[in-house]
Write a structure and sequence with these properties.
Blueprint: H1 2-24, H2 30-59, H3 66-80, H4 83-86, H5 104-107, H6 109-131, H7 135-156
Helix pairs in contact: 2-3, 3-6, 6-7
């Protein structure tokens, strides 16, 4: 009984300490919120790229691995569902934050969200095609899948080649 009481007391002390530390922190400034949003976006897109890279390599001649292709496409579909959420914070007014996101995203959020949905739909279609084990069928679906990335980049991302 003493051990249980001591454990409960210890948990209360830890919980109250966590509460006070959390409340003692200042709220983030708008600039800090914007920088945080950009950081999350970059991490999200790096994760998509991490999963897309092996699929792209297969499209360019690396051995086709249907299991990897399907798994990674499924991951991308899930991750892509977060794209509209990580763009909820309009960061276009913060010029000191480095981002390739164009201000037109927040001017055309409905279209931006539809392009994110197209990525999800095309990733799922590719996953289904890859599940057959047929390279040609999977690569036919890959064209639309990869194209959905480009469609959004062409409209809502700074052209880094300029």
């Amino acid at each position: 009984m003493k051990k249980v009481l001591m454990l409960i007391c210890a948990l209360c002390v830890v919980a109250s300490g966590t509460f006070f530390v959390a409340n003692a922190q200042e709220e983030m400034t708008p600039e800090e919120l914007a920088a945080s949003a950009v950081s999350f976006r970059k991490a999200l897109f790096r994760t998509i790229y991490f999963n897309l890279r092996p699929i792209g390599a297969m499209a360019q001649g690396a051995p086709f691995d249907a299991e990897v292709a399907q798994r990674n496409a499924n991951r991308i579909a899930v991750i892509a569902s977060m794209i509209p959420e990580v763009f909820a914070e309009n960061t276009s007014e913060f010029s000191m934050i480095e981002t390739t996101a164009l201000p037109t995203i927040w001017e055309n959020m409905e279209d931006f969200e539809s392009k994110a949905q197209a990525l999800i739909d095309n990733a799922n279609a590719f996953s289904e095609a890859a599940s057959t084990g047929d390279f040609n069928q999977a690569m036919g679906a890959f064209r639309a899948f990869g194209g959905s990335c480009g469609n959004c980049h062409d409209t809502y991302r700074v052209d880094e080649d300029e």
